[in-house]
Hints:
Elements: E1 4-9, H1 14-24, H2 30-39, E2 44-48, E3 74-76, E4 79-82, E5 84-85, H3 92-102, E6 110-112, H4 127-136, E7 140-142, H5 160-168, E8 174-176, H6 184-193, E9 197-200, H7 209-215, H8 219-232, E10 238-239, H9 249-259, H10 262-276, E11 287-289
Parallel strand pairs: 1-2, 2-4, 5-6, 6-7, 7-8, 8-9, 9-10
Antiparallel strand pairs: 3-11
Amino acid sequence: MVIIDTRIHFSRIACFEEAAFNESGCGYSLVGFQEELESNSILATIALGIQETFRFGFPDSSPPNPMELDLSDSWPNQLYFCPSTNPYELSDDSLDKIEQALHNLRAVRIKLYSGYYQFSVNDPICEPVYEVAAQSNIPVVIHSGDTFSKRGLLKYSHPLAIGKLAVTHRQNFFVIAHLGDPWVKETAEIMRKNPNVWADISGLLAGGRAYLEGMGSEPLVVNEIRYGLIYAMSWDKILFGSDWPLAPMAAYLDFVMRIVPEKHLEKVLGGNASNIFTRIFLRPRRMLFH
């Protein structure tokens, strides 16, 4: 079975390093990442661009556009990336740099950190990002739901804002991150109504294997997520993502196999990603240097 992990991190962010060391037990390094890819037979993965200008600064307002990857200069061949935007630094010059980044064929989508950055996705300042994404024929992934940072504002990360965006921007494809958790039912309705909206199921749980096995077997947790997935009637638009290093890939895969019916697993774990992220080419495994 082809497995494509559509959401991991590969940047020097202090809170991710801390969570990996203290909670998930992941080795947040190039070597640790390679081991996760090999042991779980991950054929491709997408890392989100994210940067901070001082330790524990994310989401600070100063990183450049686009935010890229800086955990290592060396990239495994399975690694693709998602340039991300800092709305505080959007200008004609930075938009040119975002567009240049998207010319790289390993750039498969673009990210907005709504909730972390206190801007609505319907704010006119975001409009050029949607235009660039449409011109490049790549999806826009939007953070939705709870934020890993306590400085995030949930009023900006509710999926209903993406519902409006999907209607006014039919030329774009959007991916709602984290199934909008805890608003999974609202996300399900938005997906059901809008053919240009997908969702990933990353970050629904974060922590080590024991935590994922415990919470991932809790009926209240599992049934809530399953309800959203079933109500959406959109198994062709659900994407697997582990949110590594906030959870071990193997433990998160086990959790996903508990919430997704077996007959849909092949699509969710890789088939759907191949359809929407058309730049992904499943190469033999070897090292690339970036």
